[in-house]
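Intended use. Records like the one below are meant for learning the mapping from a protein sequence to its folded structure. Do not use them to infer anything beyond what is encoded.
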Amino acid sequence: MFMPDWNRRTCSRRGHITYAPNEPVLRSRLHATTALGDVWRCLRCGDFALGEPHGSGPADEAPLVPRGKALRDLFILRFLAVERFLRGLLVVVAAWAVWKFSNSQDSMRRLFDDNLSVFRPVTDHFHWDLEHSPVVDTIRKTFDYEHRTLVIVALALLLYALIEIVEAVGLWRGRRWAEYLTVVATAAFLPLEVYELTEHVSTLKIGTLVLNVIAVLWILLSKRLFGLRGGLVAFEAERHSASLLEVEQAAGTAPDTAPAHV
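Structure written out for the chain above:
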């Protein structure tokens, strides 16, 4: 079964990351001289790259470059980040619609539908049933509410959108606090999603619920949150165990993979 090489794929897009450690033995394992000049081993993919290193200093001050499983996990987190960001933007639009047209039930319904039509070409392209999305259904139920209630709904939607966007930024940057926030916030809304399924079943609602459950379980277990699977200590140990520098330090007598000196 074909498995993508996350390390080389990332280096092909962003370039290699090289580092010259001060420790002579480790430095010799990461450096070689060729007919074309000095080459240094990339901390991400392990290949040798021609040119000066991007940094130098003690090995323990080298950048901890995500590689292997950590790099794959970061890709998944960024996929979730994009989903959260798009959802946040959609909720902001919904909050704006509720706020702007809260004084008139009829005009609110008419103008909301007109503005919603702007998104239909995009949602139709991705086969997303916009008419029966949880956000749209919730907004339409507010048409019969009082002005004060609609204002509260708009503020609540803005708060929800803010949480989603903050989650997106944190997940994109691989921040641990964002992983906690995502788990807590997503889990908190799961009962509401289940309740919505009892009101109206749709493929989108089922898919969203399944995606959120999988996301919560995956983040909990893979990131070892709330002390699971050894917690933060085990998570950091796993990250460092994948570091090329630390692997080379631990394998001091391993065969040298550098190209032959000329």
